[in-house]
Amino acid sequence: MSYVRNAWYVAGWSTDLVGAAPLGVHILGERIVLYRGVDGRAIALEDRCVHRLAPLSLGRCEGDNLRCMYHGLLFDPNGTTIEIPGQDMVPNSARVRSYPVVERHSWIWVWMGDKQVADTDLIPPAVGFDDPDYILGHGTLDYEASAGLICDNLLDLSHLSYVHATSFGAGNQWADNQPTVMPLERGVRISRWMTAEPGPRTQTTEPLDRWQSYDFLIPGVLLMFSANYPLGTADRLAKGSPDPDDAISGITFTSQAVTPTKGATARYFFSWGPHVRSGDAALRDQLLEIAQAAFAEDRAIIEGQQRVIDDEPGRQVMPTKADKGVVLYNRLVARLSAEEAAVQV
Predict the structure, then answer these.
(1) At what angle do helices 147-155 and 324-344 cross, to 10 degrees?
(2) What is the pLDDT of residues 213-262, one digit of tens each?
(3) pLDDT tens, position by position, 268-282
(4) Residue where a domain terminates, one of 122, 150, 168
(5) Distance between CA 135 and CA 185 in Å, rounded?
(6) How confident is the model at residue 20 (pLDDT cuts 50, 70, 90)?
(7) Nearest to 218 by CA among 333, 118, 113, 342
(8) Whether residues 51 and 169 fall in one domain
(9) Total number of domains constituting the chain
(10) Cα(167)–Cα(176) distance, rounded to whole angstroms?
(11) Are 262 and 142 in contact (CB under 8 A)?
């Protein structure tokens, strides 16, 4: 599968990078070490010493620098070797790759492409733990499956009727009713009304109209707003977008990110929780418990899908009407990847 390189990938939660301990991760098959400088800023380097190729993630932070703990070479935040124990001359070639890195929305984002075009405006506008409007829980899952398959799953929620009939209590509306799909410059927007929905998870017995809209953005980030409205709202708005301020309950936000790690494996990051006027920490914990059960269901079927694909890599999928978002997004990925390849020629 192809992936866009000129994009910000989630390397981990800000809380994953604690104190002076380096953290090794994989993104797009590349080994990366993250560590914090003396001012707390995140730094990202290639996780491979130039001397004997030992992982720098087993190294030691020394101020803004990182020392390899095999033979002691010391690297600065730009990846340049500034000291070789027992040797005065340091070759100009003694350097590792450094990566642009930004902390935002409680995530550590790493730019995997051309440094010269790294643009922080392209960081997807997720919601972090420091947002005063939401009470969020979070989690991480590792997949023995490619990131592309996870993205396809998130772009077509008709599977909720079957994969998540128990965890989310999803009914047939998810599979039977098609959402509105709109292309964006760097993603797609998928919106839908679920009308006359019973509310076992909305703390009411009255039927409601439920609105859900999410942007799925390069390189694999889902940002979803959901809320309940009075019965009849969807018809009154002719299935158009509602005003968030008119929501009466069930207001939640979820940010999810899919990061290709190495080979056909991926790491999946998610947060979910209620708006402060729609719930509390107890509801957040309830939602997170439901989410963890549901995402485990996703992982089981997607990893099974990956095993089938591995047995017959040439087998083609058969798209259905529900795949509109999948097709639009994958076409965008293919186009951006081709444009990057053309620049490199």
Answers:
(1) 140
(2) 999 999 999 999 999 999 999 999 999 999 999 999 999 999 999 999 99
(3) 999 999 999 999 999
(4) 122
(5) 30
(6) confident
(7) 333
(8) no
(9) 2
(10) 19
(11) no
